TrEMBL record:
Protein name stated in the entry: Alkylation response protein AidB-like acyl-CoA dehydrogenase
Residue ranges of domain Acyl-CoA dehydrogenase/oxidase C-terminal in the record: 220-358
Pfam families: Acyl-CoA_dh_1 (PF00441), Acyl-CoA_dh_N (PF02771)
Taxonomic placement: Bacteria, Bacillati, Actinomycetota, Actinomycetes, Micrococcales
Keywords tagged on the record: FAD, Flavoprotein, Oxidoreductase
Amino acid sequence: MDFTYTEEQEQLRSSLVSALRRNYTLAQRQDIVASKDGWSPAVWEQLTELGLTAIPFSEEVGGLDGSIVDLVAVAEIFGAHLVAEPWIPSTVLAGGVLAAFPDLPEARSLLEQIAAGEAIGALAHEEGRGTPDPALITMEAERTGEGYTLTGEKRMVLHGAAADIVLVTARLDGELALFIVDGTAPAATKFTTIDGRPAAHLRFEATSAKLIASEAEARVREALNRAIIVLAAETVGAMGALLEQTVEYAHTRQQFGSPIGAFQVIAHRMADMKLAYAKSRATLLHTTAVAEAGQPSAHDIAVLKTQVGRLGRSVGEAAIQIHGGVGMTDELPIGHLHKRILTIDALLGSAEYHARALGAPRAAKVDGSAGDERQPSTTEKELFHADI
């Protein structure tokens, strides 16, 4: 397997880094996050012009026919620069699920809007169990004379209260199906994640919905696995930024006449950070290569989510400790990068959840492929009810 980016991907990454350094400084980013919407339509337009909202979709819907490697190449940069625009919820999650149904006219129509950046998508999937496992989705869809209705609650829907396209997973005749609802229809409990991004819990009460696809479980699972890889790339990008900025700080901050990086305890701590970053990035690239070559297994995905979740947290904590009190101030990106890592860890199953999946007996696998009868544990419920 080739674990390096192509020349075109490196050029895209270089151009993106240059643009973000010029036009997306930490101060600018903080103003955007503090704004009413929590993201910038102007920046979104620039990302759209660069083709970043169209990367993973087919040319038939206005996409670029990009690969999972292309998404990872971009996500690393977004993670390092804390890009707050809704690329993950719209392009990766909602768009990724729709792209799993390329033969359906309704899905293609919605994808055209998402790929063009004209509509923001959101995926309402998880129900408070701390896991994205489609086998554990319990929301039921009911047939009516005019179509379908949905009743129940979806938790932690990124951009759920402001999306133009809200996709919802629910059970229809016992099978997982994909629906679309009017973005203004569900009752939303809005909140902001710890890294400053908008999210919502959505309550459906006999809400009218349109069926996109039935018997969708396998394709939804595949799309979520790809999203986990992209989110892991964001974490690795944030880890790299933390490492770079911490090393620079340790070699400029003077204490007792010497840079603090010269002290053995600090040097060892930074060595641990570098090892954690290298291990996480190696796991990310390996899993990405497996996904590019075919279908990563549930084991591959669980290893990746566990690895970047745990090691990402350790790198963030070390960076804050080496920086001292200034590491937690809003004026430095250190605390913001750490918060982004913690937020990603809580999405689509935490590191602890995926670690339990790795250690679970085969008969009780939590990926749904062989353990559909397994019910979420009390701990898993607590994980997701601890809203971030």
